[in-house]
Amino acid sequence: MQYAIVTGESRGLGEAIAKDFIEYGVDVIGISRSGSKELTEFSEQEKADYHHMACDLSDSAKTEQCFEKIADELFNEETYHIYLINNAGMIEPIETVGNLDAKQVTKHVQVNLLAPIVLTNSLLSYADNHEVELTIVNITSGAAEKSTPGWSTYNSTKAAMNRFTATVAAELENQEKDHRILAYSPGVMDTDMQDVIRSASKEAFQDVKKFRKLKEEGQLRGPDTVSAVLMDLLNKPNEIENGKVYKLYDLIKE
Known about the structure:
alpha/beta, Rossmann fold, seven-stranded parallel beta sheet, 9 helices, 7 strands, 46% helix, globular, sepiapterin reductase (NADP+) activity, NADP, NAD(P)-bd_dom_sf, cytoplasm, oxidoreductase
């Protein structure tokens, strides 16, 4: 059996990725506050199942407890491969430093950085005691390589996620383990996150007009297209470079 654990699968890119896994015959475990009715209905027509695990990823303790429940089901003699897609994320707070809301910053760091670290740590810990191959994908952003006024928190957590990915890859190499971990930068998509970005004030986010223009000119890719590119990459496991940040634009050029 193969399983895919997908965080933030209730909408956007997470939902598209989960749907693609189901089409490939991989059972999906979704982790989010609310599940996806569309995925439930879709899985009923396919050969793979979809199960939703309600969890608040802004709480590290609850995230770890949630994974322990999942692990009890997944780690058995029939399971040989598990994917972990750390997709859940938030863009807020969009604000300049000095005007940030401390509670929102804390929640952001918990969801965008700490939850993926906790889930990756738990998965690798369980895998050490079972003969299960792992593929871990951390959804990142081009924002990791920029200093965008108004996005200090988002820039920082995505940059940290890229470094975490590379560090885990180096540790796996040192331990001579065959698991794979990579980061995937999907570019600018037409999702709810973009709605939040476009609703920001000019004072909080100087580039807001640029993102509004992308929507007006139809330059935003749909989640289905972005997910398909990721699936093409995952279907060539021997070509995956551990710890690498794969960018949608580069993969499309190839």
